[in-house]
Amino acid sequence: MVFPRADYLLAENAPMLRIMPKQLVFFEAFEACIKAGVKATGLLKQMLDAPDDFPRFVTEIEACEQAGDRATAQVVDTLNKNLATPFERADIRSLIEALDDILDACDTVAHKLVMYRAQKVRPEAHELATILVALAPATEKAVTALRTSRTGEGVLAACHEVHQLETDADKVLRRAIGALFDEVKDPIELIKWKEILEILEHATDKCEDAVRVIEEVVRKHG
């Protein structure tokens, strides 16, 4: 939301960031990218439950990833054409790149499930996907708060849940890798599932990377 210039004089009405109309495109792109991320993570979780329907899910997740690429291109193009930005250019780039990386990781997992003929899905993959499905909307909440919140505290509160969930994902991955070496005797199976699990966890890392950028923006502007 953009407030009229006169309303900036009223602290209780002003958002944390003073966003000029031409700068809204950045926030629209951030929000479009994480919205695609929310959809992609949900599709990926469904995909893990439906091995017989992998090709359809790959197509749908690819479409989400392409939406993220378009949002990223829009941000880069706008940066190249405009001198004034709502916050530091490096932070804008870092935020859109982290959000796009969430989609890239989902797309990579989807393709590897097909390439590796991963019909029998590891339970830890389901666990990580469940965490990722919670992380994406939590990240979306933080991204939206960056535009709408009147205080830095409001933005940071939205970031807190992401940190907690990502810590859970780290714990699941450590346990999952240990279980692989304990339970899987076929080295090919071990290698392929270790890779898939690590990419799933990488997607959770990127959610946290995004909110860390947001927290840095709050530190500078809140």
> What would you call the structural class?
mainly alpha
Number of domains: 1
- Point out poorly predicted stretches: 1-12
Mean pLDDT rating:
91
CATH class: Mainly Alpha
Which CATH architecture is right?
Answer: Up-down Bundle
SSE succession: HHHHHH
Instruction: Give the name of the CATH superfamily.
Output: Phosphate transport system protein phou homolog 2, domain 2
Stated plainly, the CATH topology is called Methane Monooxygenase Hydroxylase, Chain G, domain 1
Number of helices: 6
Relative strand content? under 5%
Q: Specify Rg, calculated over alpha carbons.
A: 19 Å
- Assign an overall shape: elongated
Overview of this structure, please?
With 222 residues, this protein is an all-alpha fold. It has a single domain (17-221), classed as Phosphate transport system protein phou homolog 2, domain 2 (Methane Monooxygenase Hydroxylase, Chain G, domain 1, Up-down Bundle), CATH 1.20.58.220. The protein has six helices and no strands. The chain has helices at residues 24-48, 54-81, 89-115, 123-148, 152-183, 187-221. The longest helix has 35 residues, at 187-221.
Topology:
Blueprint: H1 24-48, H2 54-81, H3 89-115, H4 123-148, H5 152-183, H6 187-221
Features:
single chain, 222 residues, Methane Monooxygenase Hydroxylase, Chain G, domain 1, 78% helix
Brief summary of the model shown:
The protein is an all-alpha fold. The protein contains 6 helices and no strands.
